[in-house]
Amino acid sequence: MTAARWRHVILWLTPVVLALLCGMLLLMAVGAPPLEAYGQILQGAFASYAKVADVTAFWVPLLLSASGLLLTFTAGLWNIGIEGQMAMGAIWATAIALHVRLPAIVQVPLEIVAAVVGGALWAMVAAWLRNAANVNEIFSGTALNFLAVNLTTWLVSGPWQPPEGGSVHSTPIFGAHAVIPTIAGLRLSWVALGVAILGFAAAWVALRGTRWGLRLRAMGHSRASAHILGVRVERETVLAMAACGALGGAAGAMRALGTYQSLRPLISGGIGFLALLVVMLSSLRIVWLPFIAFFFAAIITGSQRLNLVMQLDDSLGGVLQGLLVLFALLTGGLRARLETRGAVEASATAASTKPGPTLGQGEAAP
Amino acid sequence: MRVELQQIVKVFGTLRANDDISLTLEPGRIYGLLGENGAGKSTLMKVLSGFLQPTSGRIVVNGTPRLLDTPEQAIRLGIGMLHQDPLDFPPLQVLENFSLGYPGRWVLDRPRLRQRLLDQADVLGFDVDPDAHVDRLTIGERQELEIVRLLALGVELLILDEPTTGISAEQKAHLFRILKRLAHEDGLTVVFVSHKLEEVVSLCDHAYVLRRGQLVGAADMPTETARLVELMFGAPLPPSGRKAPRVGDVTLELQNISVRSHRLCLANVCFEVHAGEVVGLAGLEGSGQSELLRACAGLLEPLSGSITVDGQSVVGAGYHALLRQGIAYLPAGRLEEGLVAGLTIAEHVALVNGNGSPWLDWDRAKAAAKQSIAAFAIQGEPDTPVEALSGGNQQRLALALLPRGLKVLLLEHPTRGLDVASSAWVWRALLERREEGTAIVFTSADLDEIMERSDRIVVLAAGRASQPHDAGSVTVENLGHLIAEVNQ
Amino acid sequence: MSGEMILSMLASVVATSSPLLTAALGEMLTERSGVVNLSLDGTMLLAGAISFIVGYHTGSVTLAFAAGAGVGATMALIVAFGSIVLRQDQIAIGFVLTLLGDSLSAFVGQSYTRIRGASVPHWPLPLLERIPILGPILFRHNAVVYGSVLLVVVTWWWLYRTQAGLRLRGTGERPVSAYVRGVHVRRLRVVYTALGGALVGCAGSMYSLAIQLGWAEGHTRGMGWIALAIVIFGGWHPARIALGAYLFGALKAMVTYLQRTVPGAPVTLLNMAPWLLMIATLALVGSGWLERLLNSLPTRVQSPARRLLRSSPPQALGTLFARE
Q1: Nearest 5°: phi and psi at B390?
Q2: Does the beta carbon of C82 lie under 8 angstroms from any beta carbon of chain A?
Q3: Mean pLDDT of A67-85
Q4: In this predicted structure, what is the pLDDT of residue B80?
Q5: Mean pLDDT across the stretch B296-321?
Q6: C-alpha closest to that of B144 among B112, B108, B174
Q7: Interval B166-213: pLDDT, tens
Q8: A187: three-class secondary structure by DSSP
Q9: What pLDDT, in 10s, does the model give residues A216-235?
Q10: Is residue A331 part of a domain?
Q11: What is the average per-residue pLDDT within A47-52?
Q12: Which residue out of C162, C169, C181 would a mutagenesis test of the B interface target, given it has the greatest number of B Cβ atoms within 10 Å?
């Protein structure tokens, strides 16, 4: 391999190594043997078919959300509200699950469609706030997330309580007609897998194969230039958010109808935020999403074992993932800096003249 | 204070903005620094004022070579510059602008600073309101404030970069009076950077002329303007032989248009453009040319007045609606606003060519891109990202992306930063469109270009616009008069 | 509600709003220099956990706060370093740090939940607490609450009455002009980001040591985001930020009161109120309605009105400054 390729590989491996090292330091600080902890995580994820099925079951909503977020990221939007969109999807699906009784072959698709619609509408609120009142989608998203959680809590502990009373932490388990059928003995469903792959494929096709995807990319690079070239930036904002909300809603439905077969507060389980990390790590290249998502799903699922076996909080998984993305961002910046320094030293032919610090509109060429 | 610039060289990438320039500045005199846009005047002054570091060369102050690393060091030595867009703080108040960076105690002594501001302004005969917010001032007032500040800091060499852009005739007369007094009575050195000949001749004692980064001549004032023109442009300008255009009916008509941006206010502009005609908007930079074009394109909402295209009003229609109706706009900032850095040529072509199908056909897009590349002689491949193209090729691509059969084409600095060959090519392409019947309105900082390419010229200055003049009747010399006329 | 109850409620509003106020003022300083530190929520959680741990083991509240401030400054410096030196997206780094801070706080705090640790002692001010009405509301608290009120005054004075504060404001509006006047823009940004971050860390410590006493996983989740919104709502001005923080606190106090006194009050729906208020205020500020109102005022009134009602961010917020 050439020197450049070695450097490439090293720069890609560095964040992983750094994250693992920091994790080790952390584990030693709380008095836990680090290598054993890592081993337990791996075991927790892959030790048995049931475990792998669990990982995959987590992977499904994660991939769906990440696919949707790739659309909004491509358009230059920070859709923090993905968690709320998942919750809304779960709520709408639950509404049908609890109150409608149809044969499963009709009921389940209906629930999924409802979830998609619910998530899309919730996302469109944030888009509208941005277009009409210039509210940054980070803030509206955060507020809408908390609002969705509150709504879920209220529904679960209030109107959707069964008359004979039940738990405030969850609605009653849905009837067999309303849930997604799982593979025998495992907590995974073919339907869920299918939905995930479908959603991912749809996002891929939209991004790479449609003019809409190209418009989103133009917008993400430069809103001003895209506008001049004819892209209806405000309209595309709404559509991109709606699409992401739709996929997020589907993810929420998978959680409610598949994983838990009931609705509970915090049904989204932080998967939305995790999906944001997945997309950030992918450098906006859709082909990486399924792999990174699987990797993250394995870490999260595996970390649960830490609690059982080593009395360690399972948040270690979140710590490792956060460190990984942080180091990836920082080394990405480092790489860019090294590259530009190299380019300056090679004194490449400037394409156009590079003026000094910009001074304002009256300034002509230096 | 005697300042010498010795063999100053400043290089940006491959551009030699200042090429071995040496000159001397004596106290008590007003120096003019003349040259076309792009001659290197601003760069040289930024080097002198510590804003930029020269690639090589020395600055000698009173016999001692000095290193001016930052503008603050320069000010401590007594060298201060008023930039063309004053480097002040628009959201803050006048007193705050004055006080920021003023030596003194750590706790702001506001009464003392206020008194200092008012005293210094008084000495200069300027009227300042310490409590006003700077973004509410006119550009002339902001300049006055900056001059007050620099003099209060004890500046002995005052550089003014194109200070007469967009200020009224009165303000200019007052400014000139003050500069003469500062130099001839108080012994300061004043450097007046401009591409406006008459002003340099009437104000300055001595002029240096720059062309293409080099010092090509010096002259004591007063002197014949023809000599200065020759130095600035290299030869007296030949009369332009042009054939009378075949113009059609009125396509674009502006009536009593007033626009306002955060920098200026343009009032009561009226003129009309015919199909197949080229109209140039002339005037000092920042006189409202860009705002006017944007108003016509639907990007800036005029305060009042009407704009009609083929008889239909277009005010309020919005940029995209106008684009569909055949009114296109090419902004000056090619990568900031016209092209998307990060996408390739083929992607741009695909983005713009809507043929109804939502699906991207990459083969078709690449073929169309190849066609455009050939037709417009762009040096690049369909896969080339646009930020890798040279300025000339970017401009060709921008032209290639425009739909054909436009009614009105609005261009902001169509040949900015391009070499002679690319500029000529761009105009060939534009003239082709003119043959198709498109009305073309453009602005340029290059007076040459406006005079050579326009059929008629509208002069903008100090918030007003003139009636269109025939291109033949406008020259570099009388442009000054025309601008003065507009001011009245 | 009796007078006693009102006074006691107002007093508790002042106390419970003090961390929010401190965090918002800290972020105001950071944003005034031109940097956005989005990691507030995670920083507050992490600082809360670590300062509780330090306080528990050393028994010293001072050390605990120092630790919290250190955590806050470190997180902020990562944002500063990543964006100013490495030119990465401030928002991205801030967001990752938010999640990381949350996870880290849960991890390090796992064995310290629901136990008693150090706490800031109650410290009613001797004569001042006897002042009718104002006394019980303002002067029967602890040192950190007094500190937060003092901070409002100090930051106001710093911003508007010192040369250093003027330079800070100028840098946030137009870095190139500040550079020309001798300001080291990058250095100033790093310093104020760290300082702002330290204050945010203190705010997190306040929760574990003074307000909510103790550590519980994620107990202040959401507060950081509200602090960020209060900076915007407060127009980057200390007095208005204080108003915003106290308003929020009052809203929460009212919800709690209603929860206790009105049976069957839809508690969870009432909990939505702060978030709805956040969206409403951001929409009000963002839609430019306030700016239009200001522009239509006659010039004499405009200047003072603008200083009070300003709603646009520092113009250079989030941008990078390059000298050449």
Answers
A1: -75, 165
A2: yes
A3: 95
A4: 94
A5: 82
A6: B174
A7: 677 788 888 999 999 999 999 999 999 987 777 888 899 999 998 888
A8: coil
A9: 999 999 988 899 888 999 99
A10: no
A11: 85
A12: C181
Contacts of A158 in chain C (CB under 8 A): 266, 268
CA distance C177 to chain B (A): 5
Structurally, chain A folds into a number of domains equal to 1
- Regarding predicted confidence, which is higher, A306 or A300? A300
Rounded CA gap, C31 and C74, in Å?
A: 17
Helix then strand count (H, E) for chain A reads: 13, 0
Residue B480 predicted with pLDDT over 80 = no
Residue of B nearest to A209 (CA): B360
Q: Is the pLDDT of residue B456 over 70?
A: yes
CA A80/CA A72 separation, integer angstroms: 10
State the best of B42, B83, B210, B340 to mutate against chain A, taking most chain A CBs within 10 Å.
B340
Instruction: Give the pLDDT confidence score for residue A85 in this predicted structure.
Output: 96
- Is residue A277 over pLDDT 80? yes
Q: Tell me, yes or no, whether C273 lies in a domain.
A: no
Q: Which of residues 304-323 of C touch A (CB under 8 A)?
A: 322-323
Query: Are B32 and B164 a contacting pair, CB within 8 Å?
Result: no
- Residue C136 Cα, gap to closest chain B Cα (Å): 34
Say how far apart CA B41 and CA B225 lie, in whole Å: 19
| CA-based nearest distance C305→chain B, Å | 11
Q: How far is A333 from chain C (nearest CA, A)?
A: 5
Look up the pTM and report it: 0.84
Decide: helix, strand or coil at residue B105: coil
* Average of per-residue pLDDT values in chain B: 84
Does residue A71 form part of some domain? yes
Residue B287 and residue B165 in contact, taking contact as beta carbons nearer than 8 Å: yes
* CATH code at position A130: 1.10.3470
Q: Which two three-digit tokens encode residue B282? A: 């002339």
Is the residue at C316 inside a domain?
no
Q: What residue numbers bound the domain in which C195 lies?
A: 3-221
How many Cβ pairs within 8 Å bridge chains B and C?
Answer: 72
Domains along chain B?
A: 3-233 (3.40.50.300), 250-487 (3.40.50.300)
Mean pLDDT of all residues in A152-165: 84
pLDDT at B234: 64
Per-residue pLDDT at B243: 52
Give me the residues of chain C with pLDDT under 50, please.
324
Does the distance separating the beta carbons of B336 and A222 come in below 8 Å?
Answer: yes
Looking at beta carbons, which residues of chain A come within 8 Å of C275? 143-144, 146-147, 150
Q: How many residues does chain A have?
A: 366
Percent residues over pLDDT 70 in chain B = 90
Chain B residues touching A211 at Cβ < 8 A: 350-351, 354, 357-360
Please state, as a whole number, how many other Cβ atoms lie within 10 Å of the Cβ of residue C43: 35
Give the lowest-confidence range in B333-342, B361-370, C78-87.
B333-342
**For residue B13, what is the DSSP state?**
T
- Provide the number of structural domains found in chain C: 1
Rounded to the nearest 10 degrees, the angle between the axes of helix C61-80 and helix C40-58 is 150
The answer to whether residues A153 and A90 touch, using CB atoms and an 8 Å cutoff, is no
Going through B145-249 in order, the beta strands assigned E by DSSP cover 157-161, 189-194, 206-211, 214-220
Range in A69-78, B24-33, B365-374 the model is least confident about: B365-374
Among the partner-chain residues C103, C111, C284, the one whose CB lies closest to the CB of A322 is: C103
Nearest to C86 among A150, A317, A334 (CB): A334
DSSP string for A64-90? HHHHHHHHHHHTT---TTHHHHHHHHH
**Closest residue of B to C167, CA-based?**
B100
Residues C140 and C124 sit within 8 Å (Cβ to Cβ): yes
Question: φ, ψ for residue A356 (rounded to 5)?
Answer: -75, -165
Measure A202 CA to nearest chain B CA, in Å: 13
Predicted pLDDT at B488: 55
